């Protein structure tokens, strides 16, 4: 029954880390593998959706012909692509681990070691999720992720409201086998009507749980 339940829908997905350049050979990044976002893109495409996958630098490849991949590197590039695409989408799923800070200036040459401390001043990046939440129309849906280290559910629920997500997927860091670089994940979904915990599963099964939830409100 759910085979083609997303037919005619256009889903925007952000995935992977961002790289923030320090100089021509160095960057600030994070451990996101992109696996969860790519699993979501495959799940949406298999269920009939057209997918635009805005991807930071990852070692993954897309298989399905209905996935259009846009490669970006920095938070700023991901932001520009996301605000351009979202108005044409029925829903957005914001799975990327976007850098919160980026170097204020990028050195044009490789920075040399000169014995002294190196100070790299960082400025905040744009919050892509919050920006899409602001331009979201009543006919559109928006799904976000959260990774918290304490008072997880309180922070996730606050984040959902602040960024105008229809629901938020909370990743657990406290469970073995969940989160960055793993093939499995353990999530809790929070929406305005409450909290649903899920067991530890392969990221592909987690993706289909998330898409079931999205499909029901699309
Ligand atoms: O505020 P926090 O980074 O914890 O929020 C996580 C959610 O917001 C995720 O869905 C993430 O993809 C998104 N996000 C974003 N742009 C940022 C930071 C986070 O889209 N600059």
TrEMBL record:
Keywords: Decarboxylase, Flavoprotein, FMN, Ligase, Lyase, Magnesium, Metal-binding, Multifunctional enzyme. CTP binds at residues 100, 110, 145, 159, 163. Binds 1 FMN per subunit. Residues 6-216 form the DNA/pantothenate metabolism flavoprotein C-terminal domain. Its cofactor is Mg(2+); FMN. GO terms for molecular function: phosphopantothenate--cysteine ligase activity; phosphopantothenoylcysteine decarboxylase activity. Residues 11-218 are annotated as: Phosphopantothenate--cysteine ligase. Catalyzes two sequential steps in the biosynthesis of coenzyme A. In the first step cysteine is conjugated to 4'-phosphopantothenate to form 4-phosphopantothenoylcysteine. In the second step the latter compound is decarboxylated to form 4'-phosphopantotheine. In the N-terminal section; belongs to the HFCD (homo-oligomeric flavin containing Cys decarboxylase) superfamily. In the C-terminal section; belongs to the PPC synthetase family. This is Coenzyme A biosynthesis bifunctional protein CoaBC. It comes from Phocaeicola intestinalis. The chain holds residues 179 to 396 of 396 of the full protein.
């Amino acid at each position: 029954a759910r085979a083609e339940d997303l037919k005619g829908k256009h889903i925007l997905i952000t995935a992977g880390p961002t790289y923030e350049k320090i100089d021509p050979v160095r960057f600030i990044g994070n451990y996101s593998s992109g696996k969860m976002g790519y699993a979501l893109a495959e799940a949406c495409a298999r269920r009939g959706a057209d997918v635009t996958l805005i991807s930071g630098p990852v070692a993954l490849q897309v298989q399905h012909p209905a996935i259009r991949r846009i490669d970006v590197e920095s938070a700023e590039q991901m932001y520009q692509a996301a605000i351009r695409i979202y108005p044409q989408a029925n829903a957005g799923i914001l799975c990327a681990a976007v850098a919160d800070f980026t170097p204020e200036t990028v050195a044009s040459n490789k920075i040399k070691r000169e014995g002294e401390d190196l100070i790299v001043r960082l400025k905040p990046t744009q919050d892509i999720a919050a920006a899409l939440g602001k331009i979201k129309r009543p006919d559109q849906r928006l799904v976000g992720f959260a990774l918290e280290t304490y008072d997880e559910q309180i922070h996730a629920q606050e984040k959902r409201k602040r960024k105008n997500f229809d629901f938020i997927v909370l990743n657990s860091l406290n469970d073995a086998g969940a989160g960055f670089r793993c093939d499995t994940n353990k999530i809790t979904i929070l929406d305005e009507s409450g909290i649903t915990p899920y067991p530890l599963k392969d990221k592909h099964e987690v993706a289909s749980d998330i898409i079931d939830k999205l499909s029901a409100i699309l």
